[in-house]
Write a structure and sequence with these properties.
The chain is an alpha/beta fold. It is built from 8 helices and 13 strands.
Length: 284
């Protein structure tokens, strides 16, 4: 049961020829699973994993109890949560994909060219059924917001990478800083009003967010990500959650947040063209 110490159910191993092999089982406690491995005299090896409940696994990983979450969301059962991840793919994306695969859910990746060595992860993201959107190639505000031509050149370059990796283009996008960012006005006043209009003309749907994990800064941890997201869920009918798969603690938080969401009746889905865009009010 949640919030109680995990008690292992026990294990045994036997072979038709070798008999009882239980005392030869090698048991390894991982971050959120237990690995059991045994080899018979003929050299045949068997490996089995047992999941540790997410709250206990969290304590194994952090030394702290799973964050206390006291929310009353009467609409939780079936409420849609769109988990979105910006700025990757990067060094932690594969770990995130492994977690998504484990729980059978898909999310949305707003990709960049910030980590060229991980460009091939876009293909893996797409093949696993996740939605791919463009975030920018460079994420360089001064460059992309210098004028609209520079912005769309950057987007076109990222689109070419997406097509190369997935075999198709995407019409999903997210502006660097969101559509309500005011930093862009330092380079070209009024550019966000222009770009949001042009996005529609070019066949793009842009997505902002209505829940932030708070991981956009330089500091954070798993507890912050989990508590910030869960505390905002009751405030939205449909939840578009901003995260970054370039932050290791955010990726690790998903190992505990995703099962929590599923256990509490939320439905995790990838964004589609007709999904709730959670548009901010354009500020310039």
């Amino acid at each position: 049961m949640p919030w109680q110490e995990y008690k292992e159910e026990g294990f045994s191993a036997a072979d038709d020829r070798d008999g009882d092999l239980t005392d030869q089982v090698e048991r390894t406690v991982l971050e959120d699973r237990i690995c059991y491995q045994v080899t018979d005299k003929a050299g045949n090896q068997t490996v089995i994993y047992r999941d540790i409940p997410f709250d206990t696994g969290y304590k194994e990983a952090t030394g702290k109890d799973f964050p206390e979450i006291d929310i009353d969301d009467p609409n939780a059962d079936g409420k849609i949560v769109y988990l979105t991840f910006d700025d990757g793919p990067g060094p932690y994306t594969q770990e995130l994909l492994d977690t998504l695969d484990r729980y059978g859910v898909q999310v949305t990746f707003f990709v960049t060219g910030s980590f060229p060595a991980y460009e091939d992860m876009i293909k893996k993201e797409d093949a696993a059924g996740n939605s791919i959107g463009i975030h920018t190639l460079t994420h360089d505000f001064e460059r992309i917001y210098s004028d609209d031509k520079a912005f769309w050149k950057d987007i076109d370059q990222m689109q070419a990478i997406v097509q190369k990796q997935t075999g198709h283009t995407t019409n999903l996008m997210r502006f660097a800083g969101g559509s309500s960012n005011t930093i862009s006005a330092n380079y070209t006043p009024g550019i966000m009003t222009l770009l949001t209009e042009q996005a529609a003309q070019k066949g793009f749907q842009y997505f902002d967010w209505n829940i932030s994990s708070g991981d956009g800064g330089t500091e954070g941890d798993m507890e912050m990500v989990i508590t910030r997201i869960t505390s905002q869920l009751p405030n939205q009918d449909t939840c578009v959650v901003l995260c970054h798969d370039t932050k290791e603690y955010t990726v690790k938080a998903m190992k505990y947040l995703i099962p929590w969401l599923l256990d509490h009746g939320y439905s995790i889905r990838p964004l589609q063209l007709d999904s709730e865009p959670a548009h901010h009010g354009v500020q310039n």
